[in-house]
């Protein structure tokens, strides 16, 4: 596996981001090893909130949320998915599969030594994280699903997703910062857009970001469809606190929260919220509010 590593200088002086990475190694899947970056802040003995980002962002997305979690005395852990942020980036698109992403995150959790975590999952962070919740529910003390879902290819994902999938394959220049900005309600300042571009100093670093939209199961015979169906069996038995915190202006995941609430036993009786004024990347638009929702959810789960 040919692997690229974004130079450290690309991450110098990022706006609003002072967290140093903690690196762990995971099996690549072909006999080699990959380095994954995590940002592990707060008291070691405090309850852990595991933040998983999606496409085409990285853990920088959670900076406003993490500030609230840390102010509340929680331990905040964010992981850069392989192909993103400060994690290694295989250069060939075929090196990225849904199963490998799940395996890489699972291995990173073990390497970090965290357990009984509250999962905060967004976008592809949910496609990976909710798969793990369904497969290994004992790892998760609670869950907050934010603008995400666990698709099986058995239902149409909608026009907005199809348009995004097509754009990701056809645009000659894939610019992560511009994509994140375009999916927010409020315009991001140039320095924040630049921070989302930082992991990708050239187009060759973008194999994972280009491939991610094609890994979403959109047909019943997709390679990820059956594993996700099996994970849904586990999700439909998950009885620990499960909260949906979606935004009101995301055309891609709109309505997915209703399915999760109706399907997951732990979602029963929870104060699910719709955060007003948030686009797909609600962490940018309403990050402090999302952080407060997570803090309250952790407190209820521990009560």
Range of strand content: 15-25%
Rg for CA atoms? 18 Å
Low-confidence stretches: none
- The CATH class is Alpha Beta
CATH fold-level name: Rossmann fold
Walk across the major sheet and give the strand order: 2-3-5-4-7-8-9-10
Q: What can be said about the biggest beta sheet?
A: 8 strands, mixed
Distance between the termini: 47 Å
The shape is globular
Count all strands and give the number: 10
The CATH superfamily turns out to be Alpha/Beta hydrolase fold, catalytic domain
The total domain count is 1
Tally of helical runs: 10
Average pLDDT level: 97
What is the share of helical residues? 25-40%
H/E topology pattern: EEEEHEEHEHEHHHHHEHEH
Structural classification? alpha/beta
* CATH architectural designation: 3-Layer(aba) Sandwich
Describe this structure in words.
The chain is an alpha/beta fold. It has 10 helices and 10 strands. It has a single domain (3-302), classed as 3-Layer(aba) Sandwich (Rossmann fold). Helices cover 37% and strands 17% of the residues. Strands 2-3-5-4-7-8-9-10 form an 8-stranded mixed beta sheet, sandwiched between helices. The protein has a two-stranded antiparallel ribbon with strand order 1-6.
Please outline what is shown here:
The chain is α/β, with parallel strands linked by helices and 303 residues long. 37% of the residues lie in helices and 17% in strands. An eight-stranded mixed sheet has the order 2-3-5-4-7-8-9-10, sandwiched between helices. A two-stranded antiparallel ribbon has the order 1-6.
């Amino acid at each position: 596996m040919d692997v690229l590593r974004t130079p450290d200088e690309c991450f110098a002086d990022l706006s609003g981001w002072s967290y140093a990475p903690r690196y762990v190694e995971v099996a690549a899947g072909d006999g080699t090893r990959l380095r994954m970056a995590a940002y592990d802040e707060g008291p070691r003995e405090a309850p852990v909130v595991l933040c998983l980002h999606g496409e085409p962002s990285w853990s920088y997305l959670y900076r406003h949320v993490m500030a609230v979690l840390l102010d509340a005395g929680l331990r905040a852990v964010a992981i850069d998915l392989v192909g993103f942020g400060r994690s290694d980036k295989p250069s060939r698109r075929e090196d990225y599969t849904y199963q490998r992403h799940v395996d890489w995150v699972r291995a990173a959790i073990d390497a970090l030594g965290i357990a009984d975590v509250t999962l905060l999952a967004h976008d592809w962070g949910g496609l990976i994280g909710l798969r793990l919740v369904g497969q290994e529910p004992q790892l998760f003390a609670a869950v907050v699903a934010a603008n995400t879902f666990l698709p099986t290819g058995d239902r149409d994902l909608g026009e907005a997703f199809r348009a995004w999938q097509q754009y990701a394959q056809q645009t000659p220049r894939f610019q992560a910062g511009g994509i994140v900005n375009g999916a927010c309600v409020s315009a991001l300042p140039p320095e924040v857009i630049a921070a989302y571009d930082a992991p990708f100093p050239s187009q060759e670093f973008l194999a994972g970001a280009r491939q991610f939209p094609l890994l979403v199961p959109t047909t019943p015979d997709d390679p990820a469809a059956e594993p996700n169906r099996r994970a849904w069996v586990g999700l439909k038995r998950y009885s620990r606190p499960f909260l949906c915190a979606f935004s009101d202006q995301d055309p891609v995941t709109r309505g997915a929260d209703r399915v999760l609430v109706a399907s997951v036993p732990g979602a029963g009786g929870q104060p699910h919220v719709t955060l007003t004024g948030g686009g797909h990347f609600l962490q940018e638009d309403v990050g402090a509010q999302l952080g407060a929702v997570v803090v309250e959810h952790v407190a209820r789960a521990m009560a």
